[in-house]
Amino acid sequence: MLTHLDEKNRPKMVDVSPKEPTLRIAKASGVIKMSKEAFDAVKENTGKKGPVLQTAVIAAIMGAKKTSELIPMCHPLLISGIDCDIEELGDINAFKLYVSVKINGKTGVEMEALTGVSIGLLAIYDMIKAIDKTMQITDIVLESKSGGKSGEYMRH
């Protein structure tokens, strides 16, 4: 039986009350590719809407925190910490955003990390779209997770 369907085939939120809290960490990443002109504007902080990468980090944090409001079966969580890192990929005029989410809780934070990445990359798109509307958001993936019943996962 699927965990998000009840015996009458209706959607349900999983009951995590019997579970013991454990330290859980999930890290996700994604890439936004753009024109050389847009890449340089982001890098040199010359975009008209302000500091693009700093805004993307704030958006990523907000996105992770609001995941349960966006994804129907996600539990509202008391997140312990969120870390973001942005890597320049100059050879392909792109930025790679990493979001790591930590909790001591009864359910994992993979969706929070993935949502944080998605929202952070969308913020970059929004702030620089006047320069390049052809940007591509790609490769949003779970990099790793730890804690909980399913244990460790590391993308290879």
Automatic annotation (TrEMBL):
Any one GO MF annotation of this record: cyclic pyranopterin monophosphate synthase activity
Active site: 126
Catalytic activity, reaction form: (8S)-3',8-cyclo-7,8-dihydroguanosine 5'-triphosphate = cyclic pyranopterin phosphate + diphosphate
Pfam families tied to this protein: MoaC
One of the GO biological process terms: Mo-molybdopterin cofactor biosynthetic process
CDD domains tied to this protein: MoaC_PE
Top-level EC class as recorded in UniProt: lyase
Binding, substrate: 73-75, 111-112
Pathway entry: Cofactor biosynthesis; molybdopterin biosynthesis
Domain Molybdopterin cofactor biosynthesis C (MoaC) per the UniProt entry, residue ranges: 13-148
InterPro entries according to UniProt: MoaC, MoaC_bact/euk, MoaC_sf, Mopterin_CF_biosynth-C_dom
Coiled-coil ranges from the UniProt annotation: none
UniProt EC number: 4.6.1.17
Keywords: Lyase, Molybdenum cofactor biosynthesis
Gene3D superfamilies: Molybdopterin cofactor biosynthesis C (MoaC) domain
Function description: Catalyzes the conversion of (8S)-3',8-cyclo-7,8-dihydroguanosine 5'-triphosphate to cyclic pyranopterin monophosphate (cPMP).
Family named by the database record: Belongs to the MoaC family.
Assembly mode: Homohexamer; trimer of dimers.
Protein name, as recorded: Cyclic pyranopterin monophosphate synthase
Species of origin: Campylobacter californiensis
Protein's gene: moaC
